[in-house]
Write a structure and sequence with these properties.
Two copies of one chain form a homodimer. Helix content of chain A is about 55%, strand content about 20%. Chain A is α+β, with helices and mostly antiparallel strands and about 350 residues long. In chain A, the strands form three sheets. The first copy, chain A, has a five-stranded antiparallel sheet, with helices on both faces. In chain A, strands 4-5-6 form a three-stranded antiparallel sheet. In chain A, strands 1-2 form a two-stranded antiparallel ribbon. In chain A, helix 2 crosses helix 4, helix 2 packs across helix 5 and helix 9 runs antiparallel to helix 10. The N terminus of chain A is likely disordered. At the A-B interface, strand 4, strand 5, strand 6, helix 8 and helix 11 of A face strand 4, strand 5, strand 6, helix 8 and helix 11 of B. The structure holds a DNA duplex (30 and 30 nucleotides).
DNA sequence: TCTGGCACTCCGATTCCCGGAGTGCTAACC
DNA sequence: GGTTAGCACTCCGGGAATCGGAGTGCCAGA
């Protein structure tokens, strides 16, 4: 399939490529369907509208363009955008000023949660699209400490701090009551024993311990293990994630969503975050910048969205996804470096925190 | 002003009152403007349309009705709704089934946060409007315990548990580092010393202690005080609040918001929660069910909303507001008891938790 | 005081019309 | 063979005109 597309890429002669590029660029900036006449007028082709019409007809036959209705100009299809991105696009690098502004703002925030929120906000304002930052389950995190606090007799708050500075806390219900003393001891023990391990490993070790220690009748240790398992299970439930979505208002102002019907639809799509989470989760396995256009995924298809996203965190331990979400018509050449830079900035920031502490 | 309205209330003869009631009820159920003919047809009046038109004209002169456009039927104004609610409405009590269903669901949840969220969800589904639950700053809460956990050298998580079961936690930055041992001691000391007091009192005591103890050179105590003050200040910042808003989708489906313009406007209003918080905060001082219609508050005026809300928590220590939010056209007779019951249910639930522990 | 009747108004849907914009095709041209 | 001019065709969108329906206000008569 990819091979096929590559061949297609070479199939287009340079004139057709230039025409497609110009149509994409004009359409992105105006939002209108592009006519042969407006192409001729732009001055980049020494050709008459009639000749350009021929080229456009060819591009339509190949599935790169389409007409909203007969006797209208052409609009890029998602395949058209895809070709543009893969072969024609010249990424515009971020200006010095923009990068400095980003670095500056990121530098002034400390809490991980705040950094994530700031990032989504920056993505949104700088792109004028919806900014998204996603942090999935913590199963793969390595922990720095794990503390237990009595809230009620059989209700305990568990606070887990990751080596990367992320803090998670969750109230868990326990079967047996714990005293303040016990909890302090348990906190010390677990933190001391499991420092630097992932929750996943910790759980496996705890389960192994259960079996080994069954004979010893050390009640304290048994209590510790029981509590530890409950905590790990509860905190690292697979649905557990953070999702920051910023700038939904700006996207609803776009002409694409002018009428009440698509406005409602888009609004609902942004409300129901499960689908989005599902998509981002599935993107987590791949490295580098990822662009999904319209029909290329379920979520983007039904809403005519595009997504430009990227993993953040270190290569060995990816933490989540950052990206933007908007209508298919967007300035990919500007979005791509923006998302890329913010992804890097976020990764760097988290790494700093990790080292510093 | 209130006096004036009361007089108005008596000004209307019984026929006019009945006509107004019928118009409100018909309009609420259909959403259409009500004509003299449809009033005559409903059978409650032995009058011809022509006579009813006279009554309607009078009600319009008094400001209770208005015509969307000439030669359309009449629609209640916000004053009309106000009169209806104050003098004509017969609250429909909740059915046994509904109450049992509510009690049952509330009974199955334990976390305060979950209870609040459930309540807003119930409000939304049972009313088919937007359900809102608001919990303002915790300054007036009495605490059960206060624990400090090291996250990094000079970053500490503070977990406060209220006697009502509410748990708040917040990461605070400290000027000096604290060891694990110190933190445990501090936690014990503060919890022991300040159990049952409000954050506000605690802060005042801590400040007094600062002065008293300055001479003693007890570094440990000084550290304790410093940390305590930082924690209380930080956690109980005035902006600190929780707001649960549920069911925004259902409201956007209502015919009132069919066109793109009002859809956008409503959407934006629901996004920007500050205004809503402001309004709810200002309602917090008054007891009993509160109904705000259209022009009766800034927030409801610009969006043509109405709000039916009620305080929850005990009388001596109100915790927050519960309520529903929707277009002016809503079944107030059903909304009023619903909000009232859920407010009581929520208060009762919180009280139970408090006693139980 | 109530009611029937009548004139008037306004909305909304439907229809028709027309200009603008754009295409596809063909034939001529370089 | 590629390129261009010309022409017929199509479709959209806005505007004017039309018409029926719904509702009111008012007046005169019971």
């Amino acid at each position: 399939m990819v091979q096929k597309l590559e061949v297609h890429g070479d199939d287009l002669d340079s004139r057709a490529r230039e025409v497609l590029r110009e149509i994409v660029m004009q359409h992105v900036s105006t939002g209108e369907a592009i006519s042969s006449r407006s192409l001729a007028k732009c001055g980049r082709f020494q050709l008459s509208p009639a000749s350009l019409r021929n080229v456009m007809a060819d591009l339509e036959d190949l599935g790169y363009l389409q007409q909203p209705h007969p006797s209208a100009g052409r609009v890029p299809t998602d395949r058209g955008y895809r070709f543009f991105i893969d072969h024609l696009m010249k990424s515009r690098v971020l200006s010095q000023r923009e990068r400095e502004s980003i670095d500056d703002q990121v530098g002034h925030v400390n809490e991980i949660e705040d950094v994530l929120q700031l990032t989504s906000r920056l993505l949104s304002t700088l792109s004028d699209q919806v900014g998204v930052v996603f942090m999935p389950t913590l199963m793969q995190f390595t922990i720095r400490s794990m503390d237990f606090i009595a809230i009620a007799d059989n209700r305990i708050m568990c606070v887990i701090v990751g080596t990367n500075g992320v803090v998670v806390n969750k109230v868990i219900e326990t079967r047996q009551p714990f005293s303040r003393d016990e909890l302090e001891k348990i906190s010390r023990y677990i933190t001391g024993e499991f420092f630097g391990l992932t929750l996943d490993t910790i759980r496996r070790r705890l389960i192994r311990l259960t079996e080994e220690e069954r004979a010893h009748h050390d009640t304290m240790l048994q209590k510790t293990i029981a509590l530890g398992i409950e905590a790990v299970n509860d905190v690292a439930a697979p649905i557990d994630h953070e999702l920051y979505v910023e700038g939904t208002t700006s996207i609803l102002m776009k002409p694409e969503f002018a009428d009440a019907v698509s406005l409602r639809k888009t609004f609902l799509a942004l409300q129901e975050k499960e689908k989005l989470v599902e998509l981002l989760n599935s993107c987590l396995s791949e490295d580098g910048l990822q662009i999904l256009i319209g029909s290329e995924s379920d979520f983007t298809q039904v809403n005519n969205f595009s997504i430009v996203a990227r993993r953040y965190g270190s290569n060995s331990a990816p933490l989540g996804m950052v990206g933007i979400l908007g209508p298919m018509r967007m300035e990919y050449a500007r979005m791509a470096p923006l998302v890329d830079y913010l992804g890097r900035a976020l990764s760097r920031k988290i790494e700093e925190e990790e080292q510093q502490q």
